[in-house]
């Protein structure tokens, strides 16, 4: 069970919090759980919990930011569930993805993609968890050995772009862990456990 801690970075690259995570294969496919502490926009704690199936498609997404909570589960052409105990239904298809401010959702998307692709995404806004449908682009750049504060990894490099805002960044995925995500997250502590990717050398 890989486990670790990311430093969460603000707009100016300053450290604004941490995300401590653990992830592992499970009976459905794969599960990621994290505790997030951040001062952006005000100091608060968050819990993020996602389960995907063997094809890395979301089965259940649960986020609790203290002020707001959301629980979503895909079913056919609907992503349904509750936000602050009020039922919600969102359009959903087999090619849709979910995004929140955590490396986990980027990881899940990259595990589903095999090439450079533009995708439809249900985006949950930080803290408020208000859902919107957005477009994103993932550009596959290929294999790349990457340095991180916890060591170098053999990874796959992607460029992420929000097509709505134009914001873009590079990220590197090794196994089932985002080991580097420029401008947003820094992996500062990591334990591969029995199944996680290991640093080179």
Q: In brief, what are we looking at here?
A:
5% of the residues lie in helices and 62% in strands. It has 201 residues and is mainly β. The protein has one domain.
Explain this structure:
There is one protein chain. This protein is mainly β and 201 residues long. It has one domain (3-191). It is 5% helix and 62% strand. It has one helix and 15 strands. It has one helix at residues 103-112; strands spanning 3-9, 15-25, 29-38, 44-53, 58-64, 69-75, 78-83, 86-91, 97-99, 117-124, 131-148, 151-162, 168-174, 177-181, 185-191. The strands form two sheets. A nine-stranded antiparallel beta sheet has the order 8-7-6-5-4-3-2-1-15, covered by helices on one side. The chain has a six-stranded mixed beta sheet with strand order 9-10-11-12-13-14, with helices on one face. β3 and β4 (44-53) form a beta hairpin. The two termini are 21 Å apart.
In the sheet with the most strands, the strands line up as 8-7-6-5-4-3-2-1-15
Helix count from the secondary structure assignment: 1
Overall SS class: mainly beta
Could you tell me the number of beta strands? 15
**Unreliable runs, pLDDT <50, ≥5 residues?**
none
The backbone outline, from C-alpha atoms, is globular
- What is the arithmetic mean of pLDDT? 96
Encode the helix/strand succession as letters: EEEEEEEEEHEEEEEE
Task: Tell me the radius of gyration.
Answer: 16 Å
Cα-to-Cα separation, first versus last residue: 21 Å
Q: Roughly how much helix do the residues carry, as a percent range? A: under 10%
Main beta-sheet strand count, sense and barrel state: 9 strands, antiparallel
Number of domains: 1
Strand content: over 45%
């Amino acid at each position: 069970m890989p486990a670790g801690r990311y430093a969460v970075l603000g707009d100016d690259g300053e450290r604004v919090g941490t995300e401590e995570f653990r992830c592992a294969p499970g009976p459905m496919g794969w599960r990621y759980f994290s505790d997030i502490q951040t001062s952006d926009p005000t100091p608060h704690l968050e819990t993020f919990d996602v389960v995907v199936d063997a094809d890395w498609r979301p089965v259940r997404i649960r986020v609790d930011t203290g002020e707001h909570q959301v629980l979503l589960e895909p079913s056919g052409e609907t992503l349904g569930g509750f936000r602050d105990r009020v039922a919600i239904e969102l359009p959903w298809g087999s090619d849709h993805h979910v995004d929140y401010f955590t490396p986990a959702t980027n990881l899940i998307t990259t595990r589903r993609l095999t090439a450079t692709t533009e995708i439809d995404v249900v985006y949950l806004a930080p803290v408020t968890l208000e859902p919107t449908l957005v477009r994103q682009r993932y550009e596959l750049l290929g294999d790349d050995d990457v340095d991180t504060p916890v060591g170098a990894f053999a990874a796959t490099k992607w460029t992420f772009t929000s097509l709505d805002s134009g914001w873009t960044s590079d990220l590197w995925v090794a196994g089932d862990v985002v080991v580097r995500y420029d401008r947003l997250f820094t992996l500062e502590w990591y334990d591969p456990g029995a199944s996680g990717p290991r640093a080179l050398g």
